[in-house]
Sequence to fold (409 residues):
Amino acid sequence: MGNYLESAAIALSAIWAAKLRSFMTVLGNIVAVTSIIAIVSLIQGLNASVKQAILNQAGADSFSIQQFPITRSDEEFDKVRSNPRLSLQEVRALQRYNSPLITSVMAEVGGRGRVTYRDRSIDNTRILGVTSEYVNFSAYDAERGRLMSPTEVDSGRPVALLGWQTADRLFGSEVDPIDKVIQIQGVHFRIVGVSEKRGSVLGQPQDEFAVVPLRQLQMIFGSRRSLLVTVKPRDLTLIAPAMDEATAALRGARRLRPKQPDNFGLFTSDTILNIYHSATNGIFAVLVGVVALSLVVGGIVIMNIMLMVVTERTREIGLRKALGARRADIMSQMLVESVVLSIFGGVIGTILGVAIALTIARFTPIPAAVETWSVALGIGITALVGLFFGLYPAMRAARLDPIEALRRE
Fold:
């Protein structure tokens, strides 16, 4: 251990003696690690943001049934284009199925409209109509006030739950929105609650919405829109058999023969996340891979500089060997110098990468998340680069003949 510490001290003194050359040597590593840390932090932030948005919409504790399954091409969509709309009759058929694996079935449908309070209005606000079972799903909450009661929803009373940003834009921070009357597409609604703040995804706000009873939404936008049905299983571990039960119930309600394919789609939040990851993982991998190539270039630069260092210090190496230094001592000194140089670049690159990622997140809609493992990975990779590309120069220095080395000018 003492020999390695001595080698590290000699390496650090050699690096400090040639500060400019050392900095220029690791410049490639600095650029590479800066880019990698910044890109990985932005990717992690984007993934976390998209995941939270999907969970807010789909719910982590449920699965959904919709008119069309998830399709990846026009040909696939052409096959399901004629799928019938989901209706309240089919929702009731699911509820009457009385599966022990299913605890709640909710229907919802959305539209876009104008929300107005006195002289303030918001255009193109997302309006959601829900059935009374919505209170059983975690996607809906109330930070202020309360949720609409099942009785209010079933009877179609003109009440509404507002998203946080919708309430803020209509009332500001000085006016309590609870029990105020707003207009949605000209129809009066009394506010009973305000949902918790969800933030935004890539600059798109997730808090501009209003939730009303389904009957009221159908009066405003018509009843011919297909419903989105959300099903809550008794336990998350039973979600797959619960989906099978829901499929059987819906197939029975639609009188589908055994050989006929499903004319509806089922998906979970994991389904959407998997599609997102399959679409982006390849792009992210290529992006990180291209940037990582600069680490190889940086490693080659380090190897060339270390070879030059061996040439410059031939007499010193010969003298050390003549005084009893072993090959392992010479080799460890050169390897430590190479690794320290590389890690030095990795540390600076990590600091710059984190700073760039946080700056981008602060001034753009793109989120960033700096993970400890990414920082450790960045510094660890630079250590391996220094070790790998410093190995040949170290072996060459260790093999020098002390007599020939001392003769060299």
Summary: The chain has 14 helices and twelve strands. The two ends are 33 Å apart (CA to CA).
